[in-house]
């Protein structure tokens, strides 16, 4: 479900997730089974699986959050700060 005023950029993929109003999903992001809060932003090429992103939080580009991770409201995660894969 994508809430009113939310934006999912071309090239982003969303599966089984809820994107609340005003959230922005940038190009190349992949979001699966997650909840993205109001006015939150998910950066380019970030991968979220089974996560909850609080209202107003910003997830920078190239992060990987998974398996029950929670990000507080208005928190900021810099680009490339959280990775679990060894592909970079």
Relevant terms:
mainly beta, 88 residues, 4-stranded parallel beta sheet, 5-stranded parallel beta sheet
Explain what this protein looks like in three dimensions.
0% of the residues lie in helices and 34% in strands. By secondary structure, it is mainly beta. The protein has a five-stranded parallel sheet, with no helix packed on it. The protein has a four-stranded parallel sheet with strand order 2-5-8-11, with no helix packed on it. It is globular. It starts with 6 loop residues before the first strand and ends in an 11-residue tail after the last strand.
In short:
By secondary structure, the protein is mainly beta. The chain has strands at residues 7-8, 13-15, 18-19, 24-25, 30-32, 35-36, 41-42, 47-49, 52-53, 58-59, 64-66, 70-71, 76-77.
Count of helical stretches: 0
Straight-line N-to-C gap: 31 Å
Largest sheet: 5 strands, parallel
Q: What is the CA-based Rg, rounded?
A: 11 Å
**What is the helix/strand order?**
EEEEEEEEEEEEE
The secondary structure category is mainly beta
Which regions have little confidence, pLDDT < 50, spanning 5+ residues?
Answer: none
Beta strands, count: 13
What is the share of helical residues? under 10%
Instruction: Give the percentage of residues in beta strands.
Output: 25-35%
**Average predicted confidence as pLDDT:** 93
Sum up the overall morphology in one term. Answer: globular
Spatial sequence of strands, sheet with the most strands: 1-4-7-10-13
């Amino acid at each position: 479900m994508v809430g009113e005023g939310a934006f999912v950029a071309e090239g982003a993929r969303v599966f089984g997730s809820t994107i609340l109003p005003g959230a922005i999903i940038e190009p190349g992001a992949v979001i699966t089974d997650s909840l993205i809060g109001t006015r939150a932003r998910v950066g380019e090429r970030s991968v979220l699986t089974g996560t909850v992103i609080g209202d107003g939080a910003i997830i920078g580009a190239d992060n990987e959050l998974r398996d029950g991770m929670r990000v507080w409201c208005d928190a900021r995660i810099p680009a490339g700060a959280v990775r679990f894969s060894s592909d970079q």
